[in-house]
Amino acid sequence: MTQDVNQQHPVSMYLKVWGWLFVLSFFSYMVDYMELQGLLRWSLILFFMVIKAGVILSVFMHVKWESLNLKLLLIIPTFAIVVFIALMAFEGDYVLMNRLLYYSTAD
């Protein structure tokens, strides 16, 4: 018996994904339109960016249909890089505050 290996996904699935990407982009643009500032603005922008990237990676790059090993191969190093960036940012703030404290009291 031969199996048809060329499975195609329905066009409606891709249209739904495009719709969701449009909606997420709309909300991302609304963050700028509403003139949000500070941590809320950047948190929302990064949130929408990560969600859109995840949808694109999952559906258009076909990661959704890959094995768990390949998914973990993509997710674990990405998560580790984000953790290391957060640690470096925390350390940078700590060093900056110590330097400001030390040099401002050294008068």
Sequence-ordered SSE layout with sheet pairings:
Elements: H1 11-33, H2 38-60, H3 68-105
Helix pairs in contact: 1-2
Cα end-to-end separation: 86 Å
| Total beta-strand segments | 0
* Structural shape: flat
Radius of gyration, whole Å: 22 Å
Number of helices: 3
Query: Uncertain segments of ≥5 residues (pLDDT<50)?
Result: none
Into which percent range does the helicity of residues fall? over 70%
Largest sheet: none
Quaternary state, please? Answer: single chain
Give the overall pLDDT as a whole number.
Answer: 89
Order of helices and strands: HHH
Could you say which structural class the secondary elements and strand pairing correspond to?
Answer: mainly alpha
Report the β-strand fraction as a percent range.
under 5%
List descriptors:
107 residues, mainly alpha, flat
Protein architecture, described:
The structure is a single chain. The chain is mainly alpha-helical. 79% of the residues lie in helices and 0% in strands. It contains 3 helices and no strands. Helix 1 runs antiparallel to helix 2.
Question: What is the structure about, briefly put?
Answer:
By secondary structure, this protein is mainly alpha-helical. 79% of the residues lie in helices and 0% in strands.
